[in-house]
Amino acid sequence: MKRRNFCLGALSASLMFKSAVHAAETYPSRSVRVVVPYAAGGGPDIMMRQFGPTLGDALGQTVVVENKVGAGGVLAAQHVAQAKADGYTVLMGSNSHLIQKALQPSLAFDPVNDFVPVTVIATSPTVLVVSADSPYHTIQDLIDAMHDRPGKLNYASGGIGSGAHLGGATFVSLLNADAVHIPFKGSVEIPASLMRGDTDFAFTIAGTAIPQVNGGKLRALAVSSRDPMPQLAGVPALHEILNSELAIQEFWFGFWLPRQSPEVAVNTLFHKTIAALKDESVHRQFATTGNRVIQSESPQEHAQFVRREYQKWADIIKLAGITAG
Questions:
Q1: Please, what's the b/e burial string for 78-88 (b: 16 or more CB within 10 A of its CB; e: otherwise)?
Q2: Where does CATH 3.40.190.150 sit in the chain?
Q3: Alpha carbon 108 to chain centroid distance?
Q4: CATH 3.40.190.10 occupies which residues in the chain?
Q5: Residue 9 binned pLDDT confidence (cut-offs 50, 70, 90)
Q6: Which of the four, 78, 169, 290, 300, has the lowest number of CB atoms within 10 Å?
Q7: CA-to-CA distance for 206 and 112, rounded, in angstroms?
């Protein structure tokens, strides 16, 4: 009897193991949740919601976009880092997470070691914008005003360490000027603050800036990309005006999974994402919001890229004199 029970137990364990292996091999077998650390309606959110259906078709499952805003992306990162490592909770990771960690080493998450980087999907510069009815029609107008009225102008951001903060701080620092930083809870609040007249200028992610510029609500004075953007004809590249490579600041977005996620999930998400990014409609959708499709050669290559980027942004933070306090 004991031998028979042992055999049945061994058979049961074997079947359970085979079932688990089969489930892993068929990833994904249910919907995949992508946690976006940006407010609904902002450029990165729009980009992910545009890409979601195409990625879902490639995966054969629904892609659900969930916004979790706060602390410059830290709340979303901590949430995903603590999620079950089964491949079904994905973080839209970006250099914003590296920046926050460089600013606050004591943060309870590690963007380099708490995640498995899968691939980068897009990159976007920021755009130096003012209200459409602002007295500053060119970047030189703004520069002259800062020098003529030191400490009187201000710039908006989505929080300390955000792309808008880094852009503004670098801009002011390179000019040896003085302007006040006004941080908001999220980047989606920046356009409204400019239009109300609460703030004077801002470096807004292109995906948010371009629709507002085209809609006649904001005016673009410069872009932080290496080259001018075709979506903003006639708007100069900031680094050419300031004569500094530090003014080239492009922000990228990618997919990260919690550490110890199954290799099959990492590899499947990588290959299906790369396949979805080849869709020409995705390129057109991204371009309308100022994003450019890019991709990693492999998850391993993306991990190396993340480490290099961490050092780069730490250097920018140091040179711009940005602190978390």
A1: bbbbebebbbb
A2: 31-123+250-320
A3: 19
A4: 125-247
A5: low
A6: 300
A7: 26
Which helix (H) or strand (E) segment holds residue 97: the answer is: helix 95-103
Domain 31-123+250-320 listed as CATH 3.30.499.10 = no
DSSP secondary-structure letter at 237? Answer: B
Whole-angstrom distance, CA of residue 61 vs CA of residue 204:
33
For residue 33, list its beta bridge partners. 64, 89
Q: Which residues contact 158 (CB under 8 A, 6 or more apart)?
A: 72, 164, 165, 183, 184, 185, 186, 187, 188, 189, 190
122 vs 293: CA distance, rounded Å: 4
Tokens at 199, concatenated: 């703030």
* Rounded Cα–Cα distance for residues 23 and 321 (Å): 50
Of 59, 48, 52, 117, which Cα lies nearest the Cα of 296? 117
How does pLDDT run across 67-123, given as a tens digit for each residue?
Answer: 998 877 889 999 999 999 999 999 999 998 999 899 989 888 899 999 999 999 999
Query: How big is the chain by its Cα radius of gyration, in Å?
Result: 22
For the domain spanning 125-247, the CATH number is 3.40.190.10
CA distances from 286 to 69, 121, 167, 276, 279 (A): 22, 10, 22, 13, 11
Buried b (16+ CB within 10 A) or exposed e, 305-321: bbeebbeebbebbeebe
Contact 163, 225 (CB under 8 A): no
Q: Over the stretch 161-192, which tens digit does the pLDDT of each residue have? A: 888 999 999 999 999 999 999 999 888 899 99
Element (H, E) at 194: helix 190-196
- Residue 220 forms beta bridges with which residues? 129
Give this prediction's pTM: 0.78
Contact 134, 200 (CB under 8 A): yes
Q: How far apart are CA 90 and CA 266, in angstroms?
A: 10
10 CB neighbour count, 10 Å cutoff: 10
